[in-house]
Amino acid sequence: xxxxxxxxxxxxxxxxxxxxxxxxxxxxxxxxxxxxxxxxxxxxxxxxxxxxxxxxxxxxxxxxxxxxxxxxxxxxxxxxxxxxxxxxxxxxxxxxxxxxxxxxxxxxxxxxxxxxxxxxxxxxxxxxxxxxxxxxxxxxxxxxxxxxxxxxxxxxxxxxxxxxxxxxxxxxxxxxxxxxxxxxxxxxxxxxxxxxxxxxxxxxxxxxxxxxxxxxxxxxxxxxxxxxxxxxxxxxxxxxxxxxxxxxxxxxxxxxxxxxxxxxxxxxxxxxxxxxxxxxxxxxxxxxxxxxxxxxxxxxxxxxxxxxxxxxxxxxxxxxxxxxxxxxxxxxxxxxxxxxxxxxxxxxxxxxxxxxxxxxxxxxxxxxxxxxxxxxxxxxxxxxxxxxxxxxxxxxxxxxxxxxxxxxxxxxxxxxxxxxxxxxxxxxxxxxxxxxxxxxxxxxxxxxxxxxxxxxxxxxxxxxxxxxxxxxxxxxxxxxxxxxxxxxxxxxxxxxxxxxxxxxxxxxxxxxxxxxxxxxxxxxxxxxxxxxxxxxxxxxxxxxxxxxxxxxxxxxxxxxxxxxxxxxxxxxxxxxxxxxxxxxxxxxxxxxxxxxxxxxxxxxxxxxxxxxxxxxxxxxxxxxxx
Length: 626
Description:
Blueprint: E1 2-8, E2 14-20, H1 28-35, H2 55-135, H3 140-264, H4 267-465, H5 467-472, H6 480-570, H7 587-593, H8 608-616
Antiparallel strand pairs: 1-2
Helix pairs in contact: 2-3, 2-4, 3-4, 4-6
């Protein structure tokens, strides 16, 4: 008897389970033992089988190799970038050294120009000395001086030759710096080319990273599909297990009446049926094991593929993040290289400007050398003028001293005359006061006389009118002669008073005029004395400054000659590299040190104004001694 049982699983798929009840089990325990507990247990260990690699794993291996190659290329590019940075650092160092050498060469050129001027001046002085010595009477000392001068002339010629050699060396160094500049330009071009190559390779790497990202997306899709298939397989397995459990329960339910029937039936039939059922059970068990093994194999393969895909995906994600970081670092390095390239361009422009400035300075120094050679004769002539002016100053200072002494004597005489004039003025003042007193007395006497005359006239009139009264009254009678004499005396007194007043006034005017003349003479003498004193002070200062200048010039010449001799003895090869900066001695510096006068006054002497104008009218230093 056969019964068909249909059971729906969770997915709605029908599962058919067929059980042959013709051969029942001897007992439920035996059926359970036949089916086994391991068939329904989910804790059975799963054995993984190594499956053959799928084509997706081969593509992943190919991509891994490509990624490794890309990493190697990235490492190469990094090494190239490092080498470019090192080359850039070297280029910057070379630029700094070039600037330093340029500055050093400019300083050397200045020193050489100064030493050349000095040598030219010294040679001119030596030539003049030799000419003077040849003109003068030649003695033993003069011959020795001539020999020493000739030796010095030869030494200066040797120094000039060494200066010329140094100039040649400087030109060679400039050529070397220009060659270095050309090399730097070529290195810059190579750096540009490497930057372009790095850009192209970075673009290639970005394209490869995009391709890898697409492949990771495909792998993720495949993993999701594998998970769905795995879930389906597990659901099918659950449905099969449930159907088996349901069939077992039904067999248990049916086995109880079968056992009762079994007792009643014959043992022989049972044995045959039992053998048939055992065979059928074995067949079912084999089928179940085969199905379970196939399901397990599929599940294991899918799980292994899923794990491999996950590992590959993780690797790809790590590599993509690494490549992104590397691309970012490469972009930042590229920007830094651009900035450094711009800086190098700016430095090249600066170096070009420096080179042009140096060329201009060289040309200007050449022109200055030519001008200095032309001006050597002028300097010598000015030196001779200075010596002649010194002699003139000494003679004029003596003349000024004599004139000052004469002026002092004249001022003393004028002072004596002024004192005598003052005494005369005082005496005239006394006389004038006495004359004024006499004049006042005369005026008073005149007034008294006029009063008396009026009284006399009144008395005479009264005497004429009243004779009777005149006889009785006692009055003063004056005759005509007395009256005329009195009038004559009055007129004479008036004339004398007028004469005395006029004489006193004239004497006062003369005294005042003489006093004014004396004061004017005294003021003029004082002004002249002040001018003479200022002129003498200026002349003394100029003489002192000229003496100091001559002393300083002589000492400087001697010191320079000693230094040159010592320098030639110690280091004859490097004569110009160790030359110190020459001290420039000018007349203006000496005048500033000796507190030069701020204002120039007019001199009474003949040549002092010309000399002061010659010393103070020069705005630029006109005499140098190096």
